[in-house]
Amino acid sequence: MTTALLIIDIQNDYFPGGKMELVGSPQAAEQAAGLLENFRAKSLPIFHMQHVSVRPTATFFFPDTEGVKIHGSVTPRAGETVLVKHYPNSFRETPLLEKLRGQGIDRLVIAGMMTHMCIDTTTRAAADLGFECVLAHDACATRDLAFNGTKVPAREVQGAFVAALNGAFAKVMTAKEIAAP
Q: Which residue from 92, 112, 145, 149 lies 20 to 30 Å from 120 (Cα-Cα)?
């Protein structure tokens, strides 16, 4: 199998002081950075997805702001692919699928933010497209949600979405387990 690392939306607006701070974003980014270094050391393909908001109702990831920039913990290096997206699904209206297939990649290690939105959507899409997916659950972060007057803490959101992805759409592991030889 040819494996690539797919880092999704680890951007400044998701960190303390950003417009959409996530619970545990610094810790998740630290785990993603470890995976990134592991893939670099093995000279394996790396893809960075960067969300840029274009909807009039958007509240974060505005073009040409500090918040839209990829976080310093996972700064892309020369030769690493960076693709801009405008939707939760990293495949929608981007060249991601074409680039992955062009490099013969059939297995994706996925890390990033927000678990309940872009990670969930992209992981399901990747599985539907025939990729074997491995999700680094501790290299992902989310936020509290609410439904019908009930607050759902980020920890529960994370657990529910990761549990739903595990098995049918991805093998869920820690970053350390994935990076082990």
A: 149
What is the distance between the alpha carbons of residues 157 and 54, in angstroms, rounded to a whole number? 26
For 59-82, give one letter per residue: b (16+ CB within 10 A) or e: ebbeeebebbebbebbeeeeebbe
Nearest to 116 by CA among 62, 60, 155: 155
22, two tokens: 């996530």
Q: What is the mean pLDDT of residues 57-73?
A: 96
φ, ψ of residue 46 in degrees (nearest 5): -130, 135
Residues near 146 by beta carbon (within 8 Å), at least 6 away in sequence: 152
- Give me the helices (H) in the chain, please: 25-41, 96-102, 120-128, 154-165, 175-179
Query: Is residue 43 packed enough to be buried (19+ CB in 10 Å), middle (13-18) or exposed (0-12)?
Result: exposed
Q: Which residues pair with 48 in a beta bridge?
A: 7, 82
**Which pLDDT score is estimated for 93?**
98
